[in-house]
Amino acid sequence: MKFKRIAMKSTKLITLLIAFLSLNACKNSTSEKAASSPPSPTETQHPVNGQASVTDNVSDPNALQVAKSLDDFKTLVVAIEAADLENTLVNAGPLTVFAPVNAAFNKLPEGKVSSLLEPENTSKLAVILKNHVAPANYPLQQLAKEAKKGRKLYMASGNYLDVVQKEDDIYVGGTKIIKTVQVSNGWIHVINDVLIPTEEE
Amino acid sequence: MLKLTTAMLSAATLLGSCGNNSGNSSGSNGALRSSNAEKVYVAPGEYDEFYAFMSGGYSGNLTVYGLPSGRMFKEIPVFSQFPTTGYGYSEETKPMLNTSFGMVPWDDAHHPDISQTEGILDGRWVFINGNNTPRIARISLKTFETEEIIEVPNSAGNHSSSFITENTEYVVAGTRFSVPVPQADLPINEYKGKFKGALSFISVDKETGRMNIKFQILMPGFNYDLSHPGRGKSHGWFFFTTYNTEEANSLLEVNASQNDKDFIAAINWKKIEAYVNNGGGTKMVANYAHNVYDESTHTATSTMEKEVLTVNPADIPGAIYFLPTPKSPHGCDVDPSGEYIIGNGKLSADLTVHSFTKMLDAIENEKFDGDAYGIPILNYEAILAGSVKSGGLGPLHTEFDNQGNAYTTFFISSEVVKWKIGTWEVIDRKPTFYSVGHLMIPGGNSRKPFGKYVVAMNKITKDRYLPTGPELEHSAQLYDITGEKMELIYDFPTHGEPHYAAAIPADMIRDKSQKIYRLDENNHPYAITSPDQAKVTRNGNEVHVYMSMIRSHFTPDNIEGIKVGDKVYFHITNHEQDFDVPHGFAMIGANNSELLIMPGQTKTLTWEPKKVGVWPFYCTDFCSALHQEMQGYIRVSPKSSSLDLTWTLDDE
User: Fold this and answer.
1) For residue A56, is it within any domain?
2) Which of B259, B262, B434, B497 to mutate to test the interface with A (most CBs of A within 10 A)?
3) What is the ipTM of this complex?
């Protein structure tokens, strides 16, 4: 229990630090520009970091925006950012994201999360995260149908996940879907475990 | 302490990415920005280095852009009526849009491909497919006009088209939807096994470009997505990606994504050509339109063809093989040497590269993993040259430079990835804005690419331009690819939805471009070559006006004796013989369009007057200082009127 709290704390610390530092970094470059010449409209209005940085307060929120808005996904969001996958999660998709809550990451062996956040492990982290995303449109009903037909889910990692129905619940990769949220580019199904690809275990 | 370091490190990564993602390409450095501006700047009066032909998608047409400037030069009407010029409205061009379904005034134009000789762009024609009502069009690069459209029978969703073989022997059209062949009243759930996918090889006459369906291969009922010819060593073969090898007929988003691998179909067309030349194949009753525009009469004719030669793969063993390729491959691309066949598995992270040499060896040594409907499936490992693991998601299409590199678009991760042919190593990844579909390098689908620029054609625009309501023109990005790393240098909007593009050095077509039509070569049956030939004739309620136009009047410009209920044909010849002096013709209340008539050309507009009165017509193209004086009147009398026809200019 003690470990978990520490892990959580450090995750939060990382989030804060990252948020602070990256904000600072971007500010710096703008202020440098500002010092030499006033920024032109193109410089201030055109995001150069991809679709995730598009400002849009009108459309329904996408998978990334929903994940970012909920405290339950703080760790997941840090991991998505560390793996440079923000732009993928705002894509037209359709995407089905099996989103582990913070507590799911706490179940991993000690040091696993912080190790995956190391820069040299970015691609490993990306594969794990992609193992939670299917390039497909799977509302709960469709998952039930897939389970009934005995089909597997093809994930962006290249692996397949089992989907089964037990009574009224749907299980993917052995873990139960505890909640479902529709997002503009697909579905988020909330889960309590991190789905580590088999070759990673 | 350790954890703090970790945090610092990952923060540092992000910090780095803040500047690095934008890179040199579009970012904050003013000096680089201005050098990028120089790279795309074409000074007033100077010319672009390349002409790019971009499909219009749902516009049905083809647009011409300059590279690197991104300036749009022209929209060429192909499958869609175009009131701007009267294409598809004028009597001369209506037959171009005729099909076995009657007139279809629109289509979904997808994949332009420029004619080649010995695998090198020759700048004679550009071909493009109509996806919806299957058709292939040929456009002259001398006149930039659509010269021919042939309908493709037994096909539906003409998507794996219109790619040409390396001497333009054939333009190839493959069906996306499999359908009953011949069409029949069948329950849809009898799809599996009963539906067929027709791959059509349309021969192209060496001199005239005239198209003719040589043969159709009736393949298993998969979806045929894209295709490319073999070249160099693999000339004589054609490769098609397939998906839905599951043969699903409903909810394809789920049901067509079940198989771990679909196929690339490798077709030895030279073998099939020899087979049909020796009397092989089965003639099938068909009904399809073949529309040809004759430049000397300025008139198109539509002929219904009644027969097509079909080939059953089972009758010609050894001509067709399946190459297993992961995850619903989209693009099917062949490198400039002809050795590598690339499957862009659109749901996968990786690219699959097959070796032509290994493919031949696997065929020779029968390294098969069973068959599908009698067509041998080659062993995947036996033909695999390598796979490209980029970290991107959703590869769609690959083109090539002349330095041994390949460039692939990734839709889901919105990027272009540059990789090395042979080592499969990833050299560079650059973001696109956003969700890129296809990309294009001038000559990038030939033996001789011009590896200076890559154009990325994006599906999502979002905030790239000022908002213009819910509908936005798609964005394209131009990258300089002369260095080790790609550099994003420009952004420009495109018209319609470019699904694909082809480009050629401007030098190869600029000087061949036609400037006027010679009046003394005008063989239009209603043309008049001198204003004194102007006349108006009546045959029942059909009235023919033989009219000429020159700066700044029509001859005649006053016509009387027209009656309500008449059908009036204005046959108008532009008597200018001066480059870029077209005249327009617009008639009040005409239920079609205007005409835009080029120097030396004759076009015909039909008008059915409904109201008694005196009705004006005028020139719509600002042709001269006295353009506003270029006008005329038609007097329309009641149906019962016995007023004789008269026609005058200046009361003469």
Assistant:
1) no
2) B434
3) 0.83
